[in-house]
Amino acid sequence: MRIRATLHCMAESEIRSMIPADKLKEIKAKCAKPVFRAYVVGHEGEARGNLVGVGNIVKKWFSDMVQKLNEKIGIGLQLFHGHAETNDTEGRVPIGEVVAKKIMTIKDKLSSVMIGWIFPDYCNLPLDVASIEADVDLEGSIKGGNLFVSDVNDITGIALGNSEIETPGFPGATLLGQLQAFAEKQSLKITLFEGENTMTLAELKQAIQESKLQPSDVFSQDVLFADPAIKEQVQEKVKSVTGYNIRKLEELTEEKVTLTKKLEEANAKIEEGEKEKKKLVLESSKTKVGTLFEAQKTARKLDEKQVKYIQKKLDDFSPEKPEELEKEFNTYLDKKIDEYSEIAKDVFGIEDKDNGKDKGKTGGTEPNEGGSEDTGDENKYTDPTQNPLIKTD
User: Fold this and answer.
1) What domain range is 119 assigned to?
2) pTM above the 0.85 mark?
């Protein structure tokens, strides 16, 4: 339900007296010259208002419900510019807040009066109509026009508007007044040097200007920084600098993350390139293994069986240091020749003492005394003169 009211005349002193001192101090710390306005938001009698989902209806307000309406208005309740389609406040921008409330008798009617602080950005708007958005219980008949408010459950917000557009629901609602707080008091008298001479605040300012005094010449640093106007400016500057520093830190952090990622990608490419380079060098080295083996099998005078065995093992050879290919291959060849000799001995019982392991390094062995080359221990098994098992007659 929405209940419209308007503004009328109230003394500034009375408005000021309604605002709690701690609330005034809190607002003063936020705004150097806050604007307060007094609104009648409900009174005894008939009122026309919009019932959400139904439309405009007339209902009666009795004194006990006006009293309860006033109790439900909370300090800090948000003020809005105009109504929304419903009483839901989510997503709406507040233009002020309730700072005080009071039950008063105005023109013989019990009335609920609310003092609202209008935020600086909205204090110049022609806001002379107030409309409470409330959840109330109604009894009686809509058709018979005998509706009355039987309970006030909740006040969700107060909408402010212009009386040239909005029609007040309470006929007797009037503008109570407006207070520009902390305005300069031109009539202030100041006693100098405990004497009888006095001057106004304007005269004192003029004297300070004529003497070319700075504020720090008159007041201490603590007093200057305690001044609401100075304090607000300092807080804004600090907030601005802090915000700038936070933004720069965020930018530098993002830049660091980007550079770190690029560095990691570059290192990964370098590492991949090194691997590819080593792979190419290794493959290039392995193409030379066949040539090295051809040279070594001749130099070492390897027999046919040794050559066949070692050829099957050549693909297993992979140098650790391609630049020392020949040295590593000779070592590998020595191992394979030893491996072959062990297999020949263990499997076939053939012991090859002169297996060609060092022939490539020493230049080979000399022929035997008979003028024929030593073909190894294998001859004693095929020579009848050496093998008594072979029958010759």
Assistant:
1) 2-180
2) no
